[in-house]
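Z., the sequence and structure:
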Amino acid sequence: MSGGTTYGKTGAPSGRRRGTAVVAGAGIGGLATAVGLRRAGWTVTVLERRAALERYGTAFGIHPTAQTALDRLGLGDALRARAVPYRDARIRRPDGTVLAALPLERIERRAGRPELLISRPYLIEALLAELDRLGGTQIVYGSPLTDPGALDADLLVGADGINSAVRTAYFGSRSGPRPIGTAAWIGIAGFETGLYGETWGAGSFFGMTPVEPGRTNWYATVPAATTAREVREAFADWHDPVPRVLAATDPATWIRYEMRHLHPTLPRFVAGGRVALVGDAAHAMTPNLGQGACTALLDAEALTRAVAAARPEGLPAALRAYDAERRRRAQRVAFASRNLHRFMTARRPAMRDALLRVLPG
């Protein structure tokens, strides 16, 4: 494991009293936080409102910075065992004309490693396997959080998503989920297209990425479409292989969700000297930059690194350090993603497409 904290054989920094932590939510951010806390020697309980974890979802893009976070959490090898590199992707018009290249080559050149894509179920399984290996973590399913203030623990982590009960209890209801008026559709087709990137139309877009051998991850938005048939009709005259991808995906496996973001931004991610937010609970964003999972992983690693370096009595200072490191960075990503959504879904795309042709990288 890389990073600045030295861990003993049990995973706990020697000479420090172990604390107790409750993590609300067993998504990517919650499980990653539990791994980091456990590696720091804390006793962890994860509360999950669902009766069981749902192995659903398609591909997550894992930026090199988030890969480093997973390395520090001891999960880098598990990521690379199932992930595929993302290279050579383009932005196109519906007729197939290439407008620009996604900056994947530049990212790889600067970071020394490529952007990676991994199926969400694989990442969940890797996090659960690491918690099982470490021991000392209890995951309680079917446990909706109704009174966060009643939880008796040194540290409470709100990783309970955009509708976070922890956020409402400790930060109020001023910041909350805000719909942006667009539904997203995602799925996986049972063949490799070999052609990846995004196609931007007038108010609609369609994206394709690799996810694993023999399959293609796709995502789309279509104004006013409410059924799979309407989605297919909306893209029927778009360039190949967009119609084939939709035709090859069983509508029963499609996932539809209303795109929302957290607004207004929170003035802090920590409260009361013992509460911290990570992931969507802190900064839910539109998916246009593909950074939701990355920011959750970066939150988890930064929080647990700050906590690992502090005694429980020094927790308030550790949480302030976490807030200083992550809040503005995560909120900048969320802001950029929301603005990109507006740009991508412009109803009059001529000026947008012209700008894409002249913008560097």
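Confidence is low (pLDDT under 50) at residues 1-15. The radius of gyration is 21 Å.

Let me know what you think.
H.
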